[in-house]
Amino acid sequence: MSDQAIEDSEVLDGLNIRYLKFFGLWKVINDFRMTGKRNKIIKIKVFITFAFALPYIFCQSMSYFVINVDLQKAIFLNLHLFPGTQMCCKIIVFWFRIGSQCKLFNLLKKDFLSVPKGMQSKANKIFTKITRRTNVLCMAAFVVNASIVILSIVDPGISVDYILYHTGDMAAVTTGKKKILGGWYPVPMSETPYYEIIFVYEAIAGSWAGILLAVYVCLFYQVLMCLYAQFTILDLKASSLKIKPINSRRKYKINSQINSSMLKELYEILQEHQKLLSYAKELRSVYNPLVTLILGIGIFVLIIAIFQFLFGGKGNLMFIFKSLQFLAYQCIEVSMFCFGSTYIQTAALKVH
Question: Is the pTM of this model over 0.85?
Answer without folding.
Answer: no
